[in-house]
Amino acid sequence: MNSKDLILIKQFCVYHEIENTFITELHNYGLVEIIILEEDEYLQPEQLPTVEKMIRLHYDLKINLEGIDVIANLLDKIEVLQQNLVTTQNKLRLYQQHQIE
Questions:
Q1: What does each of the 101 residues of the chain score in pLDDT, given as a tens digit?
Q2: Which residue in 10, 36, 44, 88 is a FRET match for 82, CA 20 to 30 A apart?
C-alpha cells in the first residue's frame, strides 16, 4: 500500500488538536483500522468521515468510548436496515408492475 494515499495519524491528530491515544483507543474498540508502515501509523482516507464524527461525539458531546462503540454499532445496523428496506421496496415495485401487466 502506498503511504501517499494514507493519512498520517500524527498529522491528523495535530490538525484536529486531539491526542494520538484517542485514535489508538478507537482502534482497540475495532472502530477504525490503523495501518503501520515503516513504524508510522496511518488511517485510510475513507475512514476520515467516521473518525471525525467520533471525534465530535467524544470531544464536543463528551460521549465516552463505550458510548461511541454503541452508537457506531447502531448506525451500522440502521444502514443495513435501510439497504434492506430499499431492496424490499424495489422488489415490491417489480411485483406490482407484473401485477399491472
A1: 566 799 999 999 999 999 999 999 999 999 999 999 999 999 999 999 999 999 999 999 999 999 999 999 999 999 999 999 999 999 999 988 888 77
A2: 44
Identify any residues that bridge with 36 across adjacent strands, giving them in sequence order: 41
Cα–Cα nearest to 28, from 65, 72, 67, 61? 65
How many Å from the N-terminal Cα to the C-terminal Cα in the chain?
52
pTM (global) more than 0.85? no
d(CA 63, CA 43): 22
